[in-house]
Amino acid sequence: MNEAAVVLVLGASGPVGRCFLERTRDQRIRAIAVSRRVPEQSWPHVTWLQHDLEREPADVRTGSLVSFGPLAHALTQVEQGRGLGRVIALSSASTQFKRRSPDRAERRQMAAMLECEKALKNACRERDIVLTLLKPTMIYGDGSDGNVSRIGGLVRRLPFVPVAGRGLRAPVHADDLARLTVECLIAGADSAGTWLLAGGEVLTYPEMVRRIAAAEGRSVRLLRLPSWLTKPAVRAARLTGRLKDVSPAMIDRQAMDLVVDDTPAREQLGWDPRPFRP
User: Fold this and answer.
1) Which secondary-structure segment (H or E) carries 211?
2) N or C: which end of the chain has fewer CB within 10 A?
3) Share of the chain above pLDDT 90, in %
């Protein structure tokens, strides 16, 4: 990348996006960040464009696109064809774990994500655009992620947290993804491809809950229950307006190993994520 590099950033107001803007502050990279709402924070190297990507792509011409938001937005931006030569997009390793979920909505979501990945790859190939697709496991950090924050909320609200399995987890910190994105921008075509990414530490689901509780300054009581007993309780709680952010399918996944082999990214991209520190 040259000194005058300008990058269009989608999803800049999310956890990874905010870390990315912070990391590029001293990288001689200028960013045009798209947001539907006025941002809470500004940086001298960032120009904010208030725009609704659900309606249409941003009318911006840059050589590079970095997308931390919905893949569909990255796809429409590429299809607009405004001089792009480089795209780095964030997807999810959940496509490997939720494709056969008992939850119909989750299956539809994963099918749509995989279809969007395929369409984005084809669109970039047809336009001779270098594409890097990052597929991390559970993302945490910045206090606004969906997974760790959800568990933290349960720790604060409940006298005990039910646990239905000891599946393995390898959470990825948002700032590690931001750092890798900057490195991929600098590496250019050498970072092209689809990359599975895991965090720097593998731990069981109960240990992850304990670690989150400790970060909240709490000691958590774990109640080990089989999923067949926990799921009816979750359904009953949802009917009364509680635990709306917890689904029966999530209970099943507590016993699943949601980890990936990220050896290629470690060897070829220098991926070196931190241990889990919520």
Assistant:
1) helix 205-215
2) N
3) 62
